[in-house]
Amino acid sequence: MKKEFLLISGLMLSSLAFAADPAAIDSLINLQGVVISANRVQVNRSSVPLTISVIDRDQIEASSESALLPVLSERVPGLFVTEKGITGFGVSSGSAGTVNIRGVGQGNKVLMLFDGQPQWAGVFGHSLPDTYVASDVERVEVIRGPGSLLYGSNAMGGVVNIITRQHRQEGRRTQARVMMGSYNTQKYMINNGYNVGNFSSFISLNHDRTDGHRADSKFDITNGFLNLGYKIDDHYKVTGDLSLAKYNTEDPGTITSPLLDHVMHILRGTTSFALENHHEKSSGALRVFYNWGHHKINDGHAPNADPRSFLFYSDDHNTGIQLYQSFRLVEGNTFTAGVDYKNWGGHAWNDTIKGAIGEVVDKSVHEVAGYAIMQQDLFDILSLNAGVRYEHSSAYGGEWVPQAGFALRPFEGNTIKGSFSKGYRSPTLRELYISYLPYSKANPDLKPESMLSYELSIGQRLLDNRLHAELTAFYIEGKDMISVVDRQMSNIGHFYNKGIEFETGYQILNNLSLDMNYSYLYMNKDIVAAPAHKFFAGATYMPGRFTLNLSVQSIFDLYTNVGSKPEDNRKEDYTVLNARASYRFGTRDKGLNLFVKGENLTATRYTINDGYPMPKATFMGGIDVTF
After folding, report:
1. CA R_g for the chain
2. Can you list the pairs that 595-601 forms with residues at least 24 positions away whose Cβ atoms lie under 8 Å?
3. pLDDT tens column, 86-126
4. Tens digits of residue pLDDT in 420-458
């Protein structure tokens, strides 16, 4: 009864009035727009068979979040992100920021991209959630399902393509923001965009810090981002970017097993260069990327134990080259071919002040791949899409990746999609080469994990695109999951998941809108961080210069722990209510904005990471200036 009441309450909340400015309204109405994550080139979202969610700049800006992942966790059906505090995700086993899509994600099974280029730590294979800064993002395209055809390893459960900001408007624009709130949390941001002639630049700087809602849970981070672009002529353009993040985080351990001195010092960086070409019947790019990190970690000790005598260090890298070209030689046809090369790995060791006490790993893996994908549009109502990829790894050999699907548009505003695709994940250096005796022994003969996905969706737009809704059903089956058997890493696991996802949005008036999403997930094997029911409803109302936002998220049947015995399993059900109010002086491009926001306003007690209770009600206030 509690679940039904909370869902009904959420539906009632979603019917509350909310408004947006004209730019945000236009963004919502045209949300289907174009996407680039499906075919590497711009295509209409309604013509590709994959289920893709798009989160645009206005939705990110309206959240006042400095981190990107919490926005995605609310706005994308079927996607869930683990959290453990007011801000900051951290790294290592006590961290949060794991992204699950349709119950697949732990162990880096959802691929995070910057402008189509993979981002993960080369040694342990985990994503880097604290480096995904909201102020640096133009939009996010999320493929809810395998994306390995174009992006290769680790795109098994899905793809989150973070498209970074470039300043395209003529002239200069500067934005600065200061936020302060609960638990001495402070957030500072400044960015500047400049465009003159054929040259453009965008630069930003962020700094977040908090004392945390628990003892020994301090966190601070400084992020910097730079993007430069130059249009050579009407056909060629070069871009380059650099992102750096330095952060320090404390992990207090679980409530039942607290830790002292569990401190992590992290330096992360990524840089890339691209040469893009755009012609009447062809377009493509050459992209080169390199991301790296240096980690210094004290794994801490129990309050009644001696401090550790050594620290863990690691240097990792993930570098590669991408070359692809798309051709439109026949009416209605798009053919894209590409080749990828990646080299990832690193060096990890334990060290004391007086010298090294033990090597952990010093390895790298090479991967090379070629792929082709073709899309054919027929009679303006049907699009057929098919492709194949072959990838060879120095660690496990070759892997074939097929994909096929259709998008049918039988009448105006209606789209029916169906697809079949394969996804896979390469074993990490930790699984291949790092043994944790007596608990688990590495296995250099591991094969990649893989899964097959089948999905069908139907979408409809009405009232001059002011109302839209989409319903998706999926079934996925995985094999060769990597697990510990007799204390050795082995390919033994199998699973299947199925479910439905629903999202809708309604622009009731020019100043009145609402949006909602819901997902249901059934798994034959219980895993943590994958709720069976996930519901979100949001509303924004802007009378005059005021903007009021209200949202609710309900999570049911979320496993926070899955043990070897049923009695060891632990579940959470919770609902959180969030609100934001702001008042603007001037315009969006030149003005001042005062705002205040509250999260978990009902002070719900809940846990996402087992043993790490989330904070009760938290409040932030700030000022945003644009000039």
Report:
1. 24
2. 595/64, 595/621, 595/622, 595/623, 595/624, 596/620, 596/621, 596/622, 597/64, 597/549, 597/621, 600/576, 601/576, 601/577
3. 888 877 655 678 899 999 987 789 999 999 999 888 888 88
4. 999 999 998 888 988 876 677 889 999 999 999 999 999
Q: What is the largest CA-CA distance in the chain?
A: 73
Name the strands in the sheet holding 137-143, side by side, starting at the edge strand that comes first in the sequence: 52-56, 137-143, 158-164, 110-114, 117-118
- Distance, in Å, from the CA atom of 217 to the CA atom of 209, rounded to the nearest integer, reads 11
Mean pLDDT, the chain, rounded, equals 89
Name the CATH superfamily housing domain 2-626.
TonB-dependent receptor, beta-barrel domain (2.40.170.20)
Q: What is the mean pLDDT of residues 220-228?
A: 96
H or E element: which one contains 258?
Answer: none
Bridging pattern class, strands 137-143 and 570-586: unpaired
> What is the spatial distance between Cα 6 and Cα 15, in angstroms, rounded to a whole number?
15
- Strand 355-378 and strand 333-352: the pairing is antiparallel
Return the sign of the alpha-carbon dihedral for residues 347, 350, 351, 355: negative
Pick the range with the lowest mean pLDDT from 76-80, 82-86, 178-182, 372-376.
82-86
Amino acid at 592: L
Q: How far is CA 456 from the centre of its chain?
A: 23
> What pTM value is reported for the model?
0.91
Q: Per-residue pLDDT tens for 377-390?
A: 999 899 999 999 99
Q: How far apart are CA 408 and CA 501, in angstroms?
A: 19
